[in-house]
Amino acid sequence: MFKPHLHTATPRHAEVYGFYEKVYTVIDLCAGLTFLVGSILFLWESTTHFATWLFIIGSAMFAARPLSRFLREFHLGRLPLPEDDPKT
């Protein structure tokens, strides 16, 4: 796991790598927006309860970032490599 050459080993590896990069980017963007909105809502006492929930959700999203990287590496590690093909 966490071998830097795996993301270009085969076209399928590149496809899987690209998918997980998109997932990571979406998680990152949503977490940032959640924290931004939570910060703005925290300015008024009437919305602090909702803002607190946004911070909790944003924190969970930030925790999901390394999980998505771990899943990407696990997925890449399970894909066959060209040197694994017995025909070559």
Topology:
Elements: H1 11-41, H2 48-78
Helix pairs in contact: 1-2
| Broad shape | rod-shaped
Distance between the termini: 24 Å
The biggest beta sheet is recorded as:
none
| Fraction of residues in β-strands | under 5%
Provide the low-confidence segments as ranges. Answer: none
SS-derived structural category:
mainly alpha
SS elements, strand count: 0
- Gyration radius, to the nearest Å? 19 Å
Tally of structural domains: 1
Question: How would you describe this structure to a colleague?
Answer:
The protein has 88 residues and is mainly α. The protein has one domain (4-79). 70% of the residues lie in helices and 0% in strands. The chain has 2 helices and no strands.
Q: Which features would summarize this protein structure in a list?
A:
rod-shaped; 70% helix; 88 residues
Short overview:
The chain has 88 residues and is mainly alpha-helical. The chain contains 2 helices and no strands.
